[in-house]
Amino acid sequence: MVTVTHPSTADSVESPAGRRRGAEVARVLVALALAWLVPLAAHPLRLDALLPLLVLAGTMAIQRGATGLVDRFVVACAQLFGAACVFGLGTTLWPGHLHPTLVTGVALSVLVIIAGATGRMRFDVRHLRKIRRPADILLAVAVAGVSLVALVPYAARDLGGRLGLPLAGEDIARHYLLYDAIGRTGGYLFMRPSALRPYVPDEELNGIANYPQGLHFAYAVLGRFVSSTTGDISADAAVDVMMWLLIGTFLLLALAVLWAVRRLAGPGTSPARLLPVLLLAGAWLVLGDPVTVLSRGYPNELAGLACAAVLTAIVVRPLTRVGEQTATVALLLVGLSFSYPLFLPFGGLAALWWIRRARLWRFWWGWLTAALVALVAAVGPLTAATASSGSQLLLNGTARVVDRPATVGLLVLAVVAVLVRRGLRAPSHRAALFALAVAAGMAGGLGLYQTVTLGHPVYYFDKLLHLLIVVCLCALGGLVRFAPGLGVALRVAVALPIVAALAVAGGEWHTAPVAPGVKLALGKDRGSPEAARDALLMTRMFPGGGAVSVDLMGSPWRNWSATLGAAALQHNYRYFPAWSGLLYPGAAGRASTMDDLDRLVRESPVPVRFFVHDPEASLLVVDGSNPRRPNVKPGQPLPVAFGDPAAPTNVAAARALAAKYPTKVQVVYATPANP
């Protein structure tokens, strides 16, 4: 007897679940192909500058722990910065370096794989409706207002004016050097310091090569996308891109702080209650001490402050998905490590508070994530320690001294915001109070150490005060619970006197007329625009360098800053330190004589170009131990004729050396550029 077996319906017809899995795999494969085809097509069309926006949009699309477009945008920016810092470790080793097609292809492929693995290949358009929430609209208006106030002083200036603001603080030249060298070599310089050796003096190689470079790497990547679109890779174009990226970093800091204020205010906060708090926080950003971090040219600190603001917000009010919260906290810690390790202890303690609250130790992947984050986040402190001296925290710098009374007042407001109306009953307010305590404790501890050691606080104390200010501004969101019966007009009326008090004065003890942001907006804070224009002029005339360019065209500080700027732009910073001692008018000890200038020319390993213009300009003296120079009152600009009347002027000294060393010295008669 023969038995005939018929195939079952389940065997002959594919199940709906199987069809869905097949369709999902097909979508992933198509998306992976597009991840490479789109950047391949964009490059010959010179549309590379649009590709970072595509990566950002893709990162926003796969978010599920953040609601609304504003939340997704902020979280995506934070995640991408941390991911870029990690990405740089691999980029340094691969042969393609920073080519836009390769960078975009890898980034989009990673996003497609994450979306496929988590089932997020489809974007729910219903999330777009959440942008219409009144609180989000108010936040967007506040960010636009802060951006306008911050952008106008820079947009109204030419490139020399924009560059001149931070050039007065000196550090911007080394930031440009790192940004430019990473763009040229394609990766982190601490992993191959030999690539930096042609650009810096041997005695500074270790310090510069091991400086935290996460933000410089991100700038170099974005700069490559811009140059691939414009086709302009001149020094002018490169430094202009870096300046706008610096300004953009401050705008992202402002967005992060204002977003944190809204987030800490709570999801049900009405615009009427939120408006005066955003007004106060926004005014503090563009009028008070935070804007000085921009004007003095500290891009790494701006990035570190932005990471701290986002971390504070999501530790106080975590994202709705534990996985996304864990990944975002981890990437923010990496961002802090690779941008500004001084703030990493704050980030680590804030993260531990959330880990305890979320009881993350219950999951095996939580331990694995902690180990990986500890390993990668250790890079920043370890390299910074290699670059630093044993007394690094005692060094002074060029940062503006923070307004002490205003900062104390802000701290009091922040504590009130956390404690008002039995605030500590809420876990979010306990987390906010912990963040305030950590930031205040770090600043107070360092200030005490510096006072005991030096007699007064210096540089890094003010940096930690910047961190405290940002955390306090984030915590102001709790003020929406204060006096719930007040209307919007009365709330704004309460906030306006505080804003006015902030605007009318500044300085260490809040006694200097008008706030730093007001000075910047009115053009009173100019920096060294003439020096920046001289540096750009020298670089345009001799873009390839080939010789050390020495500015002798004008006043002493202008000449020193311009020579520094040109050294970075012409890739000749390696030869600058020797000339710095001769040109620096504030140097202690001997003033420079004609013999000193002759010796520098004679010992220079490369030719020397002296740029001259003003026949009255002078810096040399006859007797270095007993210099005769004009008496200048403290705070007054130094005169162009700063040298001894009996010593040669700058023009005469340059001509004499050109006659003595005709094959080594060139005198360039230049006309400084006007704004």
From TrEMBL:
Protein name: Uncharacterized protein
Keywords carried by this UniProt record: Membrane, Transmembrane, Transmembrane helix
TM regions (residue ranges): 25-43, 49-66, 73-94, 100-117, 137-156, 241-261, 273-293, 329-355, 367-386, 406-424, 431-452, 464-482, 489-509
Species for this entry: Dactylosporangium salmoneum
